[in-house]
Records
---
Amino acid sequence: MNPSVLTPLALPKPPNAVDVSCHNLVKRFPDGTVALDDVTIECPPGGITVLLGPSGCGKTTLLRCVAGLETQTTGTMSIGGRDVSAVDAGLRGVAMVFQNHALYPDKTAEGNLAFPLRMAGVPKRERARRVAAIAELLQIDGLLKRRPGQLSGGQRQRVGIGRALIREPDVLLMDEPFSSLDAELRVEMRAEFLALQRRLGMTTLYVTHDQAEALSLADRMVVLRAGRIEQATSAEEMFRRPATSFVAGFLGGMNLLAGTLDDGTLRVPGHPHGLRLPALPANGSQNLTLGVRPEDLKPGPGGPDDLSFEITTMLTELLGRERLVHGHLGDRRLKVRVHADVPVGERLTVHAAAADLHLFDHDGARLPGAGD
Ligand SMILES: Nc1ncnc2c1ncn2[C@@H]1O[C@H](COP(=O)(O)OP(=O)(O)OP(=O)(O)O)[C@@H](O)[C@H]1O
């Protein structure tokens, strides 16, 4: 990787970066499918807003609505304060990068890069200048005479990004751009893209269903579920304090266990005495969901202020330095990250500190509790 691409992280954002906002967007397809159900989001100027969520939750549809490739059924959107709800795709100042590159197979890399400029009537000399500049920026200047079939997946995606950037869009829309690349290249391209985005400062909406990618890129993270926004906040806040049990399970693979709260004592299966949590409401009884991350469960019984469980180990996965142990707690499955190998089919006692517990009410909404 060219260090000059990675260093300018501290460059100031261009003063003309625009915000993107969508208000009450509904998208109903002719067959009745409601892909977006009253979506309102604000994407900060010059930042990366990551749209995350399971397959079919509406991520691509939202991106296509912002691009103008799809018309929303109701709702409005604006770019840089301008209402673009009814503006043609080509006049919105947005460019899109697709997962499958969508390059023209019979054009060279150079021809693909120059294509949007030719369409816009940019004179030949200026086209050549901008193609050379973008090719240098993306380190594909040695590949310009090749056709897509003669390029690797990563090189093709660089051309795809270059073709989107060459028109100097205000807004860049990326739909799982690196998901077809192998794991190592994906991580490298992601870091390169982040550096490039920081350098150029274009407002970016980035779709992924890869939570590691989402956490590493997002200035603002939006989790969608069945066409609705489940939570929208900074990546760090979402990881630290997921607003719902759905977000908790999706982001970081939190263990979720059904439990009850009796007069301030949390009871979960496998835990004989319950755990008294001062922050919890001290009267009445309610069903709730307890969340704890695999890495927050430690082997051993812990102390009196910890919640401990005895699980039966089922299988272990090597993650590198650590292992992910899959176990049973009653009829629930539980994952624990450990450093040493653990025999399968044995009892294992693990504990979590009260501060690492997340609690959700019976509707899945976060309860202020242990770790808050
Ligand atoms: N043209 C269409 N006609 C009818 N339904 C559609 C159409 N396009 C998408 N959908 C539906 O809208 C919903 C949202 O689809 P969308 O492609 O936005 O999801 P996604 O979150 O991007 O999923 P993935 O991660 O699998 O790409 C899905 O139920 C999908 O089947």
---
Amino acid sequence: MTSPSRSLEAMRAGAPLVQCITNYVAMNFAANVLLAAGAAPAMVHDAEESGEFAAVAGALTVNIGTLSPRWVAGMVEAIDGATGAGKPWVLDPVACFATGLRRETTTKLMQLRPTIVRGNASEILAIAGESSSGQGVDAGDSVQAAEAAARKVAQEAGSVVAVTGAVDFVTDGARGVWITGGSPMMPRVTATGCALTCLVGAYAAVVEDPLDATVGALAHFAAAGEMAGDGVSGPGSFSVAFLDALMAVGPESLGAARVRAA
Ligand SMILES: Nc1ncnc2c1ncn2[C@@H]1O[C@H](COP(=O)(O)OP(=O)(O)O)[C@@H](O)[C@H]1O
Ligand SMILES: Cc1ncsc1CCOP(=O)(O)O
Ligand SMILES: [Mg+2]
């Protein structure tokens, strides 16, 4: 196993280029998150160029937050490009239960076998075919309630699945890891989860085992969230402090204390 500390060092040393297909809400914040953490973002989503770009990026992330048929075409081209070039890709199924277009698109993208799926508990429950209480982009279920669903989706799709919330759970269907940390301010800042998905892509570009890569990215967020949450007065100042903390976090903050095998 590659420890989260080692993964952080590898991610910073490699400064991987990550192609992010993410939503209009998240684009700016996610790009800043990657730069602060030590990676290089590029928001490239149109079908005219997304496949070509995927072959040169270290990893691809695909987020359905502000979806349209034209975006879906760009996603499929990019996934073909990444898969053809042997690059990992990460799916963020934002509010995948909310509309027909989101349900159909998520089914289609899951059939293309994402290397990693990162969502909140309601999204992962919905992908597993179970009922969930999500409200739009926000979760209404606990991560613990989605543990079995995550294991099932991982086994069926052959993907690593990460469920995030007050605690995080990651599984490849056989192994399971819990990660603690973060701050209650994190769900009060929009696109925190979307930005995390992009960071998972950065780790996956340089860490061979997708489970280790995912744990590294989530531990990095957990440590930075904890650091930034200390003494801030609300979501606005948290958001600024969080970017600073993503850069300030070092390997010593990603120790065994916040990562536990299930
Ligand atoms: N109540 C909380 N306490 C600590 N960290 C949290 C909390 N809620 C979410 N997080 C963290 O915020 C990040 C985004 O997760 P989440 O809110 O589940 O995603 P999404 O925005 O897609 O719903 C993750 O790093 C997660 O651990
Ligand atoms: C508010 C909103 N609406 C469509 S996408 C989006 C951002 C969702 O971000 P996150 O999933 O990280 O909370
Ligand atoms: Mg989300």
